[in-house]
Amino acid sequence: MRSIWNGAISFGLVSIPIKLVNATENHSVHFRQIHLADGGRIRYRKVCELDEEEVSGGEIGKAYEDADGTMIPITDEDLAQLPLPTAKTIEIVAFVPADEIDPLQMDAAYYLSANGVPAAKPYTLLREALKRSNKVAVAKFALRGRERLGMLRVVDDVIAMHGLLWPDEIRAPEGVAPDSDVTVRDAELDLADALMDTLGEVDMESLHDDYREAVEELIAAKASGEAVEPSESKESGGGKVIDLIAALESSVRAAKKSRGEGEADGESAAEGDMADVHPIKKAPPGRTAKKTAQPKSTARKSTPSSTGGKKPTASSAKKSAASPASRTKRKKTASEPASATKESSSSAKKQTSSGSRSTTKKKTAAPRKRASA
Asked: Which among 105, 113, 106 has a CA at the least distance from the CA of 8?
């Protein structure tokens, strides 16, 4: 990497020769301005307002514009005569805990590289001292014509320096916070905590600029003459007044879904999903017939009730035998199973045979009584 500044770190009486290297780079796609009529490039030329002639870089100097519009010329020699102890030195002024540095002050980042073999020992000493103390170094340095504030910290095995804004360059957040008093309920905080836990951590290496990739694909498609189809833009809910609880619950469900986690109990009902309806399976005809058919004990109990509690005679047995048959016919017309008819007819036959045996006994017993008389 090409160095942009050479100097030294002043660490008390220790001087560490270093090179300053940019730690970041800009990957944004840059565009040129063109004339829409013919595609010609638009260029900005530096022209003097007085004679309206174009001037080169060597003819251009610096000046400070006063409040009344007067230009006060300032030359490089004037600036070089100013007492600037940090012109070629990064002067460490203090060591402080990292949390004392306001992130709002963070500016550009640089890597500090040891310049030459003699710088390796003091460079390593400062790096290990920063590691063991868990602190950062606050320093002053001069770059691009002005003095700046910096913070030195360790990144892997390298000392990095972050340019810092001066404290008076940080604006106070006046009029930025909401004017009205807002009360946040515990339920809303619990949902916010749940959303934070669901989103969890992220691998910073996996984050990338989707917009830049889309622009590069657009340029490649246009360069090859391919037709570019407009992509569907997702609508953002900006500016809409929504139910905060419902929005948090939906955000938690969406975050779980994006991470492949299962939905929590009751979430599908909360979303308004309907339960699945499954048809009841029909049992085989034989099983249904056994359940619908009356047991034999019922048929036996119903027969004595029709005879008035007396012993069955031949006539009553015939009636009882006939009545199940008639009921069987009615059952058949009502599409009853055939097994129920068989059971009722068999019970009727048993009752008929028992009735006939009792009638025969009575007939044989009558002549004996007459003979004895």
From this structure: 113
Per-residue burial over 153-170, b if 16 or more Cβ lie within 10 Å, else e, is bbeeeebbbbbbeeeeee
Sign of CA dihedral 319, 320, 325, 328: positive
Q: Model-level pTM? A: 0.57
- The residue ranking higher by pLDDT, 188 or 84, is 188
Which tokens belong to 299? 């048929």
- Tens-place pLDDT, residues 308-358: 444 444 444 444 444 444 444 444 444 444 444 444 444 444 444 444 444
User: Average of pLDDT values for 273-295?
Assistant: 46
Decide: 73 and 62 in contact? Cβ < 8 Å.
yes
* Nearest alpha-carbon partner for 131 in 99, 111, 153: 153
Contacts of 6 (CB under 8 A, 6+ apart): 17, 18, 19, 20, 88, 115
Query: Residue 287 CB: number of other CB atoms within 10 A?
Result: 10
In the predicted structure, residue 238 carries a pLDDT above the cut 60: no
Residue with tokens 């069955």: 312
CA 137 to each of CA 72, 100, 140, 158: distance values in angstroms, whole numbers, following the listed order:
38, 11, 10, 14
Which alpha helices (DSSP H) does the chain contain, by range?
76-80, 120-133, 186-199, 210-223, 244-258, 267-270, 285-292, 296-306, 314-333, 338-372
Q: How many angstroms from the chain centroid is the CA of residue 71?
A: 57
